[in-house]
Design a protein that fits this description.
The protein has about 280 residues and is of the alpha+beta class. The protein is about 20% helix and about 40% strand. Strands 9-8-5-6-7-10-11-13-12 form a 9-stranded antiparallel β-sheet. Strands 1-4-2-3 form a 4-stranded antiparallel β-sheet, with helices on one face. β10 and β11 form a beta hairpin.
């Protein structure tokens, strides 16, 4: 957040605490909905990220007290971020060491376990995305950071997650690497090698098929073996494109069936799988 603020990027009010009682006191003295973001090793325990709902912050206080009792020995710090309502969207750019290549990826994550945005948070249950030019969303975020990234010698994919509403664009966090499962969709539009992405973007522009317009990817529990999971990808291409194929892998052992459904002159392909016993 400090880097964003130093370069004139709008940010959400946030505070970092290493003591639960200090965090509780802050919420009680400044009542509002907050988001609790654990720091350190436990930040990867997705269920610990809590989005407050009460205007007085009482639910956040209760959760912090519970975390102190159950996770105090492992959660050495946390961030309290003021909750902002709006549309959550991630902006992903590919930086070649000097500047971002022209097309920008915009993606939407679905993190709740069940449809309707209900249930516990997961790593990610599904993603939809599209490619577009360097629009206002890009200019108000990564557009202000190109010089800093160049000075740092950064090369590769970098993603910034934001909340967008009628008041502005509010970045939440960086992901300076390929995002998962977003990369599974992005790679379907790459004509150059995904594995050689770092060397490719550092010297030339990554070759991409911009007739690929949008895509979605989802993950769900398998009905035939609930302890394992399957994935489904749907990708859309513009009319007139030739049929294509790819070979995803679901788990370690799987039986895959490829189904194709006609969509006018375009094509929609889905991959469904059920792990073998």
């Amino acid at each position: 957040m400090d880097i964003l603020e130093e370069h004139g990027v709008n940010t959400i009010e946030h505070h970092i605490f290493h003591d639960f009682d200090e965090g509780i006191q802050h919420v009680q003295e400044n009542p509002a909905p907050y988001v609790i973001k654990p720091l350190g090793e436990v930040q990867n325990v997705k269920r610990l990220l809590y989005v407050g709902n009460e205007d007085d912050g009482s639910d956040v206080v209760d959760v912090l007290k519970a975390y102190k009792k159950a996770w105090g020995h492992r959660m050495k710090g946390f961030q309290l971020q003021r909750k902002v309502e709006g549309v959550e969207i991630a902006i992903c750019g590919f930086f070649n060491g000097e500047e971002f290549i022209e097309q920008v990826n915009f993606n939407f994550e679905h993190k709740k376990l069940f449809p309707g945005n209900i249930g516990p948070s997961t790593g990610e249950m599904g993603t939809s995305m599209f490619w577009a030019a360097q629009n206002k969303l890009f200019q108000e975020t990564f557009g202000k950071l190109e010089g800093w990234l160049a000075n740092e010698g950064y090369v590769g994919s970098i993603d910034i997650n934001c909340i967008v509403n009628e008041s502005g664009i509010y970045p939440l966090e960086f992901t300076p690497r390929f995002g998962y499962p977003t990369i599974a969709l992005q790679e379907e539009s790459f004509e150059s090698s995904t594995g050689g992405g770092s060397s490719t973007t550092s010297h030339t522009e990554m070759t991409q098929n911009w007739r690929f317009t949008m895509g979605t990817r989802s993950a769900s529990a398998s009905s035939c073996h609930p302890s394992r999971s399957m994935t489904r990808r749907h990708t859309m291409r513009t009319p007139g494109m030739q049929p294509w194929s790819f070979r995803p892998r679901v788990g370690r052992e799987s039986i895959l069936k490829t189904r194709r459904k006609s969509m006018g002159n375009g094509a929609l392909r889905g991959i469904t799988g059920c792990p073998s016993s």
